[in-house]
Design goal:
Shape: elongated
CATH architecture of the largest domain: 3-Layer(aba) Sandwich
Order of helices and strands: EHEHEHEHEHEHHEHHHHHH
Strand content: 5-15%
Helix content: 40-55%
Radius of gyration: 21 Å
CATH superfamily of the largest domain: NAD(P)-binding Rossmann-like Domain
Number of helices: 13
Number of domains: 2
Distance between the termini: 53 Å
Length: 291
């Protein structure tokens, strides 16, 4: 199969690199000269828009709704009928649904593939892969999906994969909010910072994400590491998509909207490029605690 991968950024580049090790022919496209340079260094062949007709499968990883919609419209106009289009972007349900209409009208098969995990997990092929769309196309795409992780789920024929990704990201964001409140309460009551992390991660509240955050933040207060695995600004994008989806379906996400407010406050206080767990610092400052 001929595969064209569009958008080889932080997530797309390792995903495309894994695909290059399969028996398929692969070319990549990106508007960023830096990402093209990195793709060449990874041994990937660079493609062009003329390869839309060459491709049997097109895969994309776009940064936002606008970029995704512009690309999906181009694909609907330029590819051959029966081409398979797999998009892995984190986008809104409404944008994905709009693209589905365009693509169906041009007889392009559309598989929504939301990937859960960060760029380190992408490099290690440890992403959780959430898929929805035509079941036959999902079955056909198994070789591709398995390149990115062993945990692969088929969730339905429409936007279920997009929504499931938002549900997971909601819970990740709310873990940081839960930590912010719990740890601030503990510090105000004179609990030792490291003791709290030790107990939390070994209690019923412990989880994979809790243990990952302990590795960053469970050091002495002066040595806490807020370098980003996923920045505050990136989490605001996801939380905005989550609250938009909630409004569309009528879900009253009061706690999540408060967490979004805290993320905006973190930006106002200069922490926008730190890890999203920096909302811990927001609550500490509210409580008069030193960071």
């Amino acid at each position: 199969m001929n595969i064209l991968f569009i958008g080889v950024g932080k997530m797309g580049l390792p995903m495309a690199t894994h695909l290059s090790k399969t028996k398929n022919a692969l070319k990549v496209i990106d508007i960023s000269e830096l990402q093209i340079k990195l793709a060449k260094e990874a041994g990937l062949e660079i493609g062009a828009e003329s390869d839309y007709q060459w491709a049997d499968i097109i895969i994309s990883s776009m940064p936002n709704d606008q970029a995704f919609l512009e690309l999906s419209q181009q694909i609907s106009e330029k590819v051959r009928a029966k081409t398979i289009y797999i998009d892995t972007s984190t986008i809104s349900l409404s944008a994905s649904s709009q693209a589905a209409t365009w693509l169906k009208n041009k007889q392009v098969h559309y598989l929504r593939v939301a990937v859960s995990g960060n760029n380190h997990m992408a490099k290690a092929a440890q992403l959780t892969v959430l898929s929805s769309g035509e079941r036959a196309i999902y079955d056909q795409a198994q070789e591709i999906l398995s390149c990115w992780g062993s945990k692969i789920f088929y969730l339905g024929e429409q936007e279920q994969a997009r929504l499931m990704k938002l549900v997971v990201n909601l819970m990740i964001a709310q873990t940081s909010a839960m930590l912010a409140e719990g740890l601030t309460l503990g510090r105000l009551g004179n609990l030792d910072w490291q003791d709290m992390w030790d107990v939390i991660t070994n209690s019923a509240a412990g989880s994979t994400i809790m243990r990952a955050k302990m590795e960053q933040l469970g050091q002495p207060l002066g040595a806490r590491d807020f370098s980003p695995t996923f920045t505050v600004e990136q989490m605001i994008k996801d939380l905005s998509l989550i609250t938009q989806a909630a409004d569309e379906v009528g879900a009253p996400l009061t706690q999540t909207k408060t967490t979004l407010d805290w993320m905006h406050q973190a930006i106002q206080e200069g922490d926008g490029q730190l890890d999203y767990a920096a909302i811990i610092r927001v609550l500490e400052r509210k409580a008069g605690l030193s960071n």
